[in-house]
Structure formats: C-alpha cells, structure tokens
Amino acid sequence: MKIGDQAKASPVLTGLDNWIEGTVIDVQQNPFLGLEIAIRDDQKRIFFGEERYFEQISSKETCLQ
C-alpha cells in the first residue's frame, strides 16, 4: 500500500462494528511491529496500526469469468 490508496480498517483495530473505508495518509516501517498504516475516513477520523488490520480496496473490478 502507498499514500493515496483506498483501504479498509478492521473492526478489531477500530473498535467499531463495521470495516471503515478511508484513504491511506501514512505508511511507515516500525522496527518493532513491521509496516504501520494510517488511514483517514470521510468523517476525518484517523485509524492506524499494523498492516494486518488493513485491506486494500481494489480500484478496478476483476472479471473472473
């Protein structure tokens, strides 16, 4: 993931009921935790944590037929 990509944050990270969609605003390599990602949602909330709590939202729909 890179800055500007669309991503979803897991409810495990956010403490909310649903996955939260937002824009990646920061990506850092943490020597203790590995890759850390921060996203900002449409309500201007910022969620950050380890890469495992995020899923990238595909900008293109893939045809599997």
Structural summary, described in words:
The chain contains 1 helix and 5 strands, in the order βαββββ. It has one domain (6-56): SH3 type barrels, CATH 2.30.30. The protein is mostly beta strands and 65 residues long. Strands 4-3-2-1-5 form a 5-stranded antiparallel sheet. The longest helix has 4 residues, at 11-14. It has one helix spanning 11-14, and strands at residues 6-9, 20-30, 34-40, 46-50, 54-56.
Helix-strand layout with pairing:
Blueprint: E1 6-9, H1 11-14, E2 20-30, E3 34-40, E4 46-50, E5 54-56
Antiparallel strand pairs: 1-2, 1-5, 2-3, 3-4
What CATH architecture would you give? Roll
CATH topology: SH3 type barrels
| Largest beta-sheet characterization | 5 strands, antiparallel
> Under the CATH scheme, which class?
Mainly Beta
Helix-strand pattern = EHEEEE
Could you say how many structural domains there are in total? Answer: 1
Keywords:
65 residues; SH3 type barrels; five-stranded antiparallel sheet
Task: Tell me briefly what this model is.
It is built from one helix and five strands. By secondary structure, it is mostly beta strands. The radius of gyration is 12 Å and the shape is globular.
